[in-house]
Amino acid sequence: MNTARLVTASLDDRFSLSRLPDDLIVQSEGMNSARRQQWLAGRALLAEAIFTFTGCEMLPAMQISPQGKPSFVDPSFPYFSLSHSKNCLQLVLCAAGETGCDVEQMRPRPRYLDIAQAAFSDTEFQWLLGQASPQTAFWQLWCLREAWLKQQGGSVWQMDRIRLDPAAGKFTTQPDTDSRLWCGVRGAVMTAVAVPEGVMAPEEYGFDVGSGLLISQTQRVWAQFDIAR
Fold it and tell me: What pTM value is reported for the model?
């Protein structure tokens, strides 16, 4: 199945917890309030998405990889990745293989050029400087890296494992992977998604607070990045 689905919600949405197993509710009780809100919202959104797309009424059992990446124990359910920035919560689902998602509320960072010069390749940095909005370009490059690292189960400390050629829409990784990246903006929110090669731009859905349902959204303009061969 060469599709992915991206679901957007807010951490402030009133999610029903009725699709979460009791042990997950208990697990959250020792967290501080901010962490508990984020943790439960992500799992409640995931449960609603699984119900919408598969009909499973309770969130299926999950497991954690040695790298800390969660997945469903039952391989018939899709791969997934959760990300949040401030109050924006996003979930990507992909049945074709491992996926990663990163969302960022674009905001001024006074030293973003110093960060970019340290974290990005010279090709990326020079491209960023040539853009009409270098800060927007910064967030694009940052999100693409984060999404790929989440797909691989990596961390922010491994950002040098991926090198982007944004002008050509290509990238290389160490080690080689079969990934494809998508990146797009909606309002002040930048989103990047990493999926297996051949998977198209995500279908988009929003969480409707009133009904508790996932509603199809208008597709944003996505930029595609493929592995350089």
Answer: 0.95
Report pLDDT digits (tens) over 96-147: 999 999 999 999 888 999 999 999 999 999 999 999 999 999 999 999 999 9
Contact 13, 91 (CB under 8 A): no
Handedness of CA 62, 216, 152, 29 (dihedral sign): negative
Cα–Cα distance for residue pair 195/179, rounded to 1 Å = 6
- Listed by start position, the domains of the chain span 4-227
Strand segments (E) across 95-178: 100-105, 162-165, 170-173
User: Tokens 């409707």, residue?
Assistant: 208
CATH topology of domain 4-227: Ribosomal Protein L22; Chain A (3.90.470)
Round to whole Å and give the CA distance between 106 and 88.
Answer: 11
DSSP string for 28-91? HTTS-HHHHHHHHHHHHHHHHHHHHHH--SSPPPEEE-TTS-EEESSTTSPEEEEEEETTEEEE
